[in-house]
Design brief:
113 residues; two-stranded antiparallel sheet; 2 strands; 11% strand; rod-shaped
């Protein structure tokens, strides 16, 4: 009763199969998390751009109606109905003159600031 080695299938030990499955799962999970991070980063960038464009549009509207740029952001809030999200963004508004476009920048606040 000599058994041939060619007739038997070699099976990997259970621990190696488990390790391969675990590695594939972790790689898949890593790809998903990277994708979520990329989408989140892109969404934050879009929010910054939208916030900045809203302030710029309100300033230009003020100039078109009144013939001068607003003195500060609170003027835009009270007279043009713009709502500033100061919980998430830091707004920089610097006016150089009543007839010159002000410097407007919006920055994201870090969590906990």
């Amino acid at each position: 009763m000599n058994k041939s080695l060619y007739g038997k299938k070699k099976k990997l030990p259970f621990s190696i199969n488990t390790m391969i499955t675990g590695i594939l799962f972790l790689a898949f999970l890593g790809c998903i998390l990277y994708g979520f991070n990329d989408v989140s980063s892109s969404a934050k960038e879009q929010q910054l751009q939208i916030a900045q464009k809203a302030v710029e549009r309100a300033a230009v509207q003020c100039y078109a109606i009144e013939g001068r740029y607003p003195p500060d952001l609170s003027y835009l809030e009270s007279h043009y109905g713009i709502i500033l999200d100061t919980d998430h963004f830091l707004y920089h508004y610097e006016r150089f003159g009543s007839n010159l476009m002000p410097e407007i920048k919006v920055f994201e606040l870090e969590q906990g600031e």
